[in-house]
Amino acid sequence: MKTVFAFDIGGTAVKFGLVAEDGRLLKQGEVPFERDLAFAALCEQLARLYEDTMAGSPADALAVAMPGFAAPDSGVVIDGGGNVPALRDGSITQALEQRLGLPAWFGNDGVAAALGEVRYGAGQRLNRFVLITIGTGVGGAVIIDGQPIIGRNGHPPELGAIVVGNDDAGEPLSLEARSSAPAMLQAYACQTDAAAVSVRQLFEQAEAGDAAAEAAIDATCRGIAQAAGALINALMLEAIVLGGGVSGAGEALTRRIRMLLPAYVWPSLAAKVDIRIAELGNTAGLLGVASLAFEGLAASTHARGAWQAAKS
């Protein structure tokens, strides 16, 4: 059985793991993302993670999920990806191919996470849904008839750019600016003299009766509900699937969004849509981008077989 070693590079952590063709995660780990790392240092870090994890037993290919839009022909991030600036300075997949001697594939992290859910998680039972990933940034993907909707050149949807209101200066406020993890913590800090806490602690404080924590979470959930409502109204979705680090709050998150959603959705559509947490959690991106590599390996094998048949 073929295996792919996958990386999922985010604004706060680099997740990695060895994925089997049937979707089993055979090995996995996570290290903090160092924002100040230069491109060459990031490449070396990823290569060493592979070498240390595999200990001389090579995978068949590599796969990298990353934020923003990477040029299809090079893998260099050319739009977005502000939380991982080093990816704009070179092709991470080309560098890893040269360093490790393995073929490498790449994809947008939100689209990869949605593919993971479609092929191995919550999306297996859904035809039309949107995955919204909420973490250091906000991303995700639109799935129609089991396939991600992307631009002709591979550009992923920019769900974090959906406008959900106005800021204090009257300027348009994006979903990412309102509902990402940093935005949630900043909203709390603006109401209190307390130091910023983790999102998990914020939910715990809200459950314990902290009004400022509850207000910060409510603002976040209202932004998600507003964006989700627009998508449901336009696309007649079966579900909104929530992923990313903030989705670790589970029912405490989905309960609030369910309560807010009817204000933004046509009633007959609201009655049919489900709000659920991604089944694969933080492994969705790894599994999804690995599936792209498996497809690439299969296509390469088919092409070699066709060439050999034509030659004989």
| Count of runs of 4 or more consecutive helical residues | 10
Q: In which range does the helix fraction lie?
A: 40-55%
Which stretches are low in confidence, meaning pLDDT under 50 for 5 or more residues running? 302-312
| Net shape | globular
Write out the strand line-up for the largest beta sheet, numbering strands in chain order.
3-2-1-4-7
Mean pLDDT: 91
Return the domain count.
2
The top-level CATH class of the largest domain is Alpha Beta
Task: Report strand %.
Answer: 15-25%
Termini distance? 28 Å
CATH superfamily of the largest domain: ATPase, nucleotide binding domain
In the CATH scheme, what's the topology name of the largest domain? Nucleotidyltransferase, domain 5
Count of beta strands: 14
Major β-sheet annotation: 5 strands, mixed
* H/E topology pattern: EEEHEEEHEHEEEEEHHHHEHHEH
Architecture per CATH nomenclature, i.e. the level-2 architecture of the largest domain? 2-Layer Sandwich
What class do helices, strands and sheet pairing give? alpha/beta
Pfam family, one: ROK
Protein name: ROK family protein
Family: Belongs to the ROK (NagC/XylR) family.
